[in-house]
Records
---
Amino acid sequence: MNIHEYQARELFEKFGVATSHGRVAFTPEEAQQTAQGLAGKKIVVKAQIHAGGRGKGHFTNGFKGGVHLCNTPEEAGQLASQMLGQTLVTHQTGPEGKVVNKVLVVEAVDISRELYFAILLDRATSTPVIIASTEGGMDIEAVAEKSPEKIFREFVHPLIGLQPYQTRKIAHALGLTGPLLGQASKLFTALYKLFIARDCSQIEVNPLVVTPDGQLLALDAKFNFDDNSLYRQADIVAMRDKTEEDPREVAASEFNLNYIGLDGNIACLVNGAGLAMSTMDIIQYCGGKPANFLDVGGGASKEQVAAAFRIILSDPNVQGILVNIFGGIMDCNVIATGIVAAARETGLSIPLVVRLEGNNVAAGKQTLAESGLTIISGNDLADAAQKIVQAVKAA
Ligand code: ADP
Ligand code: MG
């Protein structure tokens, strides 16, 4: 799960991470009022969407940039009115962009250096890793590509936690000395505490800035939370903004389905994440494009299967469906019953290839055969994938 920058700043304040002051606004009037509260200071108005790269983004109406500096409350209101309700495209949103429904109005700070600081989970070592760079700001992707030696890494033992010698080491790598060293240690420690306490899988602060008067401040924040931990993070769940998520994924999450929307035309319904991955691969190998990842798991009910089928069919790009079930714990007849119920209800009109194997397969095949639905049967995974790709091309 992701949150907005303005929500991330609330977490910063709770955990004592130094940042500049600001407030979210939903209308140009609110933006102007908030800016008035920052009397006499320069102001930054920032589009709030679940994607980075806003500074260098553009709106589909031609307006450039999702992050703007201004001098007066009136200007802040005008900037907000140019962004609110408009679609912002950045290198992270894809060409369709994201609609801006709120802006952050925040005190501008003078910047002498822009640094990069992130905490992630490293899959290879199974530990948190801190990534830092002196080359923060809007071109960090280019830095990672062209001068990877400027990216510093520090691994943290999950049981021991981030140690003071490590915060000093990172500060040193970032060229933070003198009074900045103490601020850096405090800020890194606070961020690490936040990372652990809130079950984050990513915290990215870009930029972390040094001001001319010697302050270290987090000016941007991108968070990602481990969905498996949300059951114990009520205040994080309360920050969820479903309007930022793929509507297909929102629907799937209501039924506890592991669904990820993609942009192809062949939907797949599979049990087991590994089998789902290989099903997507083999669809691609046979010349098709998967429309989704969907793992219904081992213990799905027929209601969940029916819901999964409805979500698949609600995607206008879907031109064919491949059901690939290797029933171990999963009962093939539960799958078959769910499919038949959903197909009847929605009036299935696109090709459907089903490959069923394993637990209670005979009953499953019988349910499908007796349903009266036009179902193409796949003998094995390769056969099923070829058949769905051909059927979609023919249709
Ligand atoms: P994004 O990463 O989505 O482009 P940022 O919040 O990082 O958005 O903003 C882009 C740039 O705008 C920053 O790298 C920084 O130079 C500048 N900026 C952002 N917030 C402020 C602020 N409060 N004061 C001054 N400059 C800012
Ligand atoms: Mg940024």
---
Amino acid sequence: MAFELPQLPYAEDALAPHISAETISYHYGKHHKKYVDTLNELTQGTDLADKSLEDIITSTEGKVFNQAAQVWNHTFYWRGMGPDGGGAPTGEAADAIGSAFGSYDAFVEQFAAEAGGHFGSGWAWLVDDGSGLAITSTHDADNPLTHSQKPLLTCDVWEHAYYIDYRNARPDYVATFLNSLVNWDWVNQQLSG
Ligand code: MN3
């Protein structure tokens, strides 16, 4: 069974004006799709073709890892956002963020610093590292699953995620992600899953 590009959980223009339909059209329709296509080319006819993305991510390195992790990371990123999202968390996430960071404002400050300060292409993450919630970032395609951490939320900080809408102003994109896009219901599902 070939790997498939999962459907977006909303219309391509649903996150506008925060993330434009043009950005989603390229980011989902071209970048994310290309990772799926290349993963299929690399794994076709091999034992990896029938494995889960998670199995590939935790058992391979190099080209195959990069494609599989980018497929997984993008699917996770889309699901962690939604129209009318952002702002203070609800439910279990509210309690967990309070315990780990002291307050939602302190969480925002740390997440924005990690995502804004990450050098080069990569991902900023909210994870459960086994002792509670933590903020981290990974380079290129890397994913918390390879560091024995449970991903809860991610922000894509590759330039292709924000350059059309924000040009070089990554901090503005990250602030908008936190204020207007985070889908806390998704985070709560990860916490209870
Ligand atoms: Mn991307």
---
Amino acid sequence: MSTPLVPHFIAGEWIRPAGLATTPVYNPSTGDVIAECPVGGATEVNAAVTAAHAAFADWRETPAVDRARVFFRYRQLVEQNFDRICATVSREHGKTLAEARGSAFRGLENIEYACGVPSLLFGDTLENLARGVDCETFLQPLGVCVGITPFNFPAMVPLWMYPLAIACGNTFVLKPSEKVPLTAVLLGELLEQAGLPKGVFNIVHGGRDCVDALLTHPQVRAVSFVGSSPVAKYIYETGTRNGKRVQANGGAKNYIVIMPDADIPKTVEALSTAAFGCAGERCMAGSTAITVGAAAERLLPSLVDAARKIRVGPTDRPAQPDMGPVISALHRDRILDLVATGEREGAKVIADGRGVKVTDAPRGFYLGATIVDGVQQNMTLAREEVFGPVLNVMRMDDLDRAIEITNASAFGNGAAIFTNSGKAAREFKHRVKAGMVGINVGVPATMAMFPFTGWDDSFYGDLHIQGREAVQFYTQQKVVTTRWFGDGVGDVWKK
Ligand code: NAD
């Protein structure tokens, strides 16, 4: 049986381009190629943007309540097909079904948020700005918006973007990660079934050429990006240079500070989930634990024990492991290299998942939970995003130094503290340089109604994804000032 070709979705048609270049889509649990993703370029982008631009004329005139109704139907379809969506996420990404469900649910909440668009688009009014003069604001859509998404959340991250953008009256072109295009296609089929007019939502697949064509297309007005920091910076600079509004979420290195008074069993549970959940492939993964004072002795034995108990295995079958594979053999080897570099630079591996064997799926891309102790600020492991099931441990004497280390990071996505001291927590939340902060919460990722507020190298732009900031991102404000003269035909009401 030949490997299926993933279709583009352009102007309401599913298009399978024959004879052009493709990239393989893997099932990371088995190492098998499960599909071929077409490498689209300027031709496909031009067709998709042209379709989206043409569809905008009518879609922007469609009342907000009618646009919202499409998303009420979409919500229901996504819920009805939830198991299929999560199985697809597991199959092409390698998340466990529980992780796929959790993240897809975060995506579903973004559809629910978009259903409230009539109220989200309210403007302001002021009567008698001057005598007889009134002022009002409207939020109007921009036009064609673009979403470029990473491999690590095949359902959630695209759902951060297009439901709200489209509900606000824009049309959309999604360029999903070429590593996980199948979930995007399934979500697109459901949106089509929900009754969205042709051309309002489009999908093009590809890599850099495709992205460049989107960033430079004159009819594209706004670009939402999620991915690694170097690419985020490139997208921001290229997009803004070409006159686009851009929000670009980048990578991360998130620190979790553990104070000596922390509740150890609860901290171990939260820290293992933060570090090893989704095999560490999360921009909000807690990748470095900073223990303060005696916290190290209290925490590390149970933490190592918990890491060793994590069962690694294939996620594409009924018996579920605790942790699935990483996305590719290349990525696994990069993680192995980073851990080896850490050892060379003087750190010590205290839980070693590198030799993990998965006998029923020997060609899968597996790594076990790994903890590296004695990491110092100048080491490669302390600086680079590993994006795998590897937790660094740094030991500090006091909270001031822990905050100093956290704040020295080039990234600024998330940070967390585990403590029973209100004073320590208050100090941390006030001084820490990160956009999303957890207090006794290991993964303080925000839900649909709050913005996803990365700072520094974790975000390039002004208005973040999700929540009210996203409504602002996907709309432009118009202020109308009105005065009526007294001698016009309108004066008939006086007679
Ligand atoms: P990536 O940057 O390699 O790819 C992201 C997207 O950009 C993909 O669609 C890809 O096709 C495209 N792309 C890749 N290289 C490109 C280039 N040179 N020019 C133009 N486009 C290019 O990221 P990834 O490996 O798919 O995802 C993992 C990264 O995403 C991690 O760094 C992670 O922290 C980050 N991430 C961030 C957030 C956040 O909200 N801050 C959320 C999820 C993931």
---
Amino acid sequence: MSFHAAIFDLDGVIADTARLHLQAWRQLAKELQLPWNDAMEEGLKGLERMASLEVILGHRSPDFTDGEKVALASRKNDCYRALIETLSPADLLPGAGELLHWLRSRHIPIGLASASKNAPAVLNALEIADCFTYIADPSAAAPKPAPDIFLAAATGLAAEPAVCLAFEDAAAGVDAIQAAGMTAVGVGDRNALQNADHLLNSLVEFEPERFFSAHNTPSPISASIA
Ligand code: BG6
Ligand code: MG
């Protein structure tokens, strides 16, 4: 099968930012004296901000009003924003920069399907924003495992879902890719990602020549998020 477009999750696939999200949530849990369970960590991957907060609050959730929850999520986000200020190209995960440049040099359209509203800031800090043909807007899409964000990315790339190869580190993301009718490459934890069509320990193992053939015409650059 030759794919025409590549779509990436960001946190935990392109950059080691999944651990920064967890660090910020762990900090909030500590401040609120909530129990932190390491087993929660895999389940938090890929979860949208307010859904993550509900997991952290657990049975204490009813103790907080909606307004207080928004303030807590914003507190976590301030902590996360401070953490990503330290990011640089050195924080690209192994193989990520090489793969993006391989695809770019062959004019294969590249989309981003991240749940994170901080994705544009992270891409800028990693100095890879220019690699992306289209960045899907997470605030306009139902959260993973719904297929919406991957379908939005495919639409932005003008590619049919069946010819999109998509990369994820979270089980909810693999489910979203497959619900979108795309082929899923799971990167990371083999137990969590066993439903993926292809499994990799890291992007270093990915052999792009087996999946893509070069496009003849350059793809337009049109990032969607401001
Ligand atoms: C996902 C992360 O990419 O984005 C989650 O895997 C995070 O951990 C989610 O909660 C939302 O991110 P943000 O930056 O909008 O809070
Ligand atoms: Mg991820």
